[in-house]
């Protein structure tokens, strides 16, 4: 009898495969490499890497490349982290200007080893981007900062346009796939930001499907999020990075994504993206523009 770790994941369906312009991807990769920057697009093996790199978009990952946690769904390297690079914020700002980005996403690995858990580097990066790119909107995708409100206060005060922290999955599956993170801590992060940030700052979260969740659990998560007035929700397909990661349970059919979209919009989210290839920072610029133009 196979154990959970030995369970064979279902084969990837043909409709999930993507194609892209390799030359454009190579050009973007060279530019980022020259600035000694990491992107979540490449580090997490995002399926939209080709489309985003090909269109001149990128989500920068700071404080990496190694993460202090080892979540079972994630492909980010786990290991001893490097010292904080104080020049990294400037390089992110320079890359944003060089690429002509009008909206930039900044995320990070978890840095439980640091006294500030990485919050100060977010602040420095936001400020650097604003100085060199005053017209560029900024989205942050933060770790949970262990629920520490002093860390959240720092990032809120820096003034990003969108504050994103991912729930990742439903309550029952959270302890199976998230290392040191809890469902309630993530809810607290989102609730605290919504209550203490300016009303002009949108609060956002994202989840993955295909981990074994039920419809009822997904709807309960939506209700939990709306109870604290979260603005944006992204829903996408979990893609198992490798054999040692949490085993994929299901390739969720498109009709379920469409139903989740309808149910989420009925509950009052300002914007919902629900499709297999959706990732938390995918088309973030278009998401913000759609809401502000309403």
UniProtKB/TrEMBL annotation:
SUPFAM superfamilies: Radical SAM enzymes. GO terms for cellular component: cytoplasm. [4Fe-4S] cluster 2 binds at residues 67, 71, 74. It catalyses: [[Fe-S] cluster scaffold protein carrying a second [4Fe-4S](2+) cluster] + N(6)-octanoyl-L-lysyl-[protein] + 2 oxidized [2Fe-2S]-[ferredoxin] + 2 S-adenosyl-L-methionine + 4 H(+) = [[Fe-S] cluster scaffold protein] + N(6)-[(R)-dihydrolipoyl]-L-lysyl-[protein] + 4 Fe(3+) + 2 hydrogen sulfide + 2 5'-deoxyadenosine + 2 L-methionine + 2 reduced [2Fe-2S]-[ferredoxin]. It is an enzyme of class 2 (transferase). Keywords: 4Fe-4S, Cytoplasm, Iron, Iron-sulfur, Metal-binding, S-adenosyl-L-methionine, Transferase. It is found in: Cytoplasm. Belongs to the radical SAM superfamily. Lipoyl synthase family. It comes from Secundilactobacillus silagincola. InterPro entries: Aldolase_TIM, Elp3/MiaA/NifB-like_rSAM, Lipoyl_synth, rSAM, rSAM_sf. Its EC number is 2.8.1.8. GO terms for molecular function: 4 iron, 4 sulfur cluster binding; lipoate synthase activity; metal ion binding. Residues 53-270 form the Radical SAM core domain. PANTHER family: LIPOYL SYNTHASE, LIPOYL SYNTHASE, MITOCHONDRIAL. [4Fe-4S] cluster 1 binds at residues 41, 46, 52, 281. One of its GO terms (biological process) is protein lipoylation. The keyword Glycoprotein does not apply. HAMAP family: Lipoyl_synth (MF_00206). This is Lipoyl synthase.
